[in-house]
Amino acid sequence: AQTVTQSQPEMSVQEAETVTLSCTYDTSENNYYLFWYKQPPSRQMILVIRQEAYKQQNATENRFSVNFQKAAKSFSLKISDSQLGDTAMYFCAFMNLQGGSEKLVFGKGTKLTVNP
Amino acid sequence: GAGVSQSPSNKVTEKGKDVELRCDPISGHTALYWYRQRLGQGLEFLIYFQGNSAPDKSGLPSDRFSAERTGESVSTLTIQRTQQEDSAVYLCASSRWDRDLNTEAFFGQGTRLTVV
Fold first, then answer.
1. Does the beta-carbon distance from A45 to B107 stay under 8 Å?
2. Is a pLDDT exceeding 90 seen at residue B102?
């Protein structure tokens, strides 16, 4: 079974600075997606960034980028120029694509607070 | 509709009563997921439907929990003889993997269940 581990229950960062959230996962599969989702106090889950396992290039979306280390099964999220609106829970997630499955498993989350 | 719709948005029920939660996925999405999120916690996987395949029920916490989905349409999550520990937000998501598209899971706003 796939598992996703986020080892940082809470983190804080000053506005305009950079922060990195950690995520590791365990799988024996070779074909999968990785995601970071954001959940603000409104509780709506919002996709931040995705990474396809077969792509070596790290995904980037504006101020958000990932460091994907497939051999180490590591998928960290870097937020640059942090903004107050980035304050939220961040969840790392794994989607297995083997055999037509799309089962989606989440980590326990990291609560990020951006301080003014 | 354009997004995943869940109803009701809030439900208060008495301990011992049965409740039924509804999820309308995005049209054409073959995969549908239910998660439970207790206050301040992560997303706990409950059940996953993939097209007409047998659902993955490995996350259901007890036999009081069941879910159905007809084809690729609406899903209902039923909790029988509710207990106070069932109080949580129940989130539904749907997705459709396509090699030529960017896969992601889209979430509903959730149903907040309170058992009194």
1. yes
2. no
Given an 8 Å threshold on Cβ–Cβ distance, is A102 in contact with B42?
Answer: no
Q: Return the residue matching tokens 């229950």.
A: A9
Q: Which long-range contacts (CB under 8 A, 24 or more apart) does B76-79 make?
A: B76/B20, B76/B21, B76/B22, B76/B23, B77/B20, B77/B21, B77/B23, B77/B34, B77/B46, B77/B47, B78/B18, B78/B19, B78/B20, B78/B21, B79/B18, B79/B19, B79/B21, B79/B113
User: For residue B53, what pLDDT is reported?
Assistant: 85
Mean local confidence (pLDDT), B97-108: 76
pLDDT tens-digit map of A54-64: 888 999 999 99
- CA dist list (Å): A58 to A1, A50, A73, A74, B109: 25, 10, 14, 12, 30
Mutate to test the interface with A, among B32, B47, B104 (most CBs of A within 10 A): B104
Task: Match 């694509």 to its residue by tokens.
Answer: A97
Determine, for residues B109 and A44 on separate chains, whether the beta-carbon distance falls below 8 Å: yes
| pLDDT, mean of residues A37-42 | 92
3-state secondary structure chain B: CCCCEEECCEEEECCCCCEEEEEECCCCCCEEEEEEECCCCCCEEEEEEECCCCCECCCCCCCCEEEEECCCCCEEEEECCCCHHHCEEEEEEEECCCCCCCCCCEECCCEEEEEC
The token pair at A6 is: 């986020």
